[in-house]
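Narrative summary of target 7.
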Amino acid sequence: MHKQSETAENLVHTDTSVETGRTQAEITRSGNPGKPQGEDGNAMLLRMNDSHYAVTGWGLEHWQIRGNEQILDIGCGGGATLKRMSEKVTTGHLTGVDYSSVSVKTSKEVNDTAVAAGKMEVLEGSVADLPFPAETFDKIITVESFYFWPDPQENLKEVLRVLKRGGTFLLVADVYGRDDLPEAVVENINRFHLFNPTLKEFRNLFERAGFAEIHVHEKEGTTWVCVEGHK
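Modeled conformation, tokenized:
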């Protein structure tokens, strides 16, 4: 069974690893969720591949992936979202981008078959300056990474630049700004300096970036959010 998503809500893990005698929270702090690094970063990414499974699946329900599409995953982390999408992409192509070299390495390892077949590539790069021509991708997604974007408003404009006209961008996160967040979650938002807009602020950010047909989805009984913007 897959656990629920992890970034703000599950960074509070206190379970102790049998192998290391260290808590998951200690490994996460060392591994740096904002830009995974070292062995702890790799361990954290593999754990998050599992813990983000449910929220990712819910987010992907808002898409109908066609087999011939060009799809980009920004902040691809441990590569699990790319792997799930690759099951539906046949003649198309998948690209992952992350500014952590550890994330790039982990994503490639998780998707080694698709990468070897030329169906997927994973690149090191920043959302602040995506290394792609304008209007390259039919669909773009980011899962649990928006918290760490360096300049969210300007970065959304960069996403729009590389999205094809008629394309869709999905932003998926397991928490958004609201008054009833548990104290432990709020502590982690502050500890890791997470950017955590309210639903209204998400809509405003997308509108100012130039997206059209914006839909802000919530999953009942959770703090999950999926913001959908079209070009």
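Residues 1-6, 9-19 have pLDDT under 50 and may be disordered.
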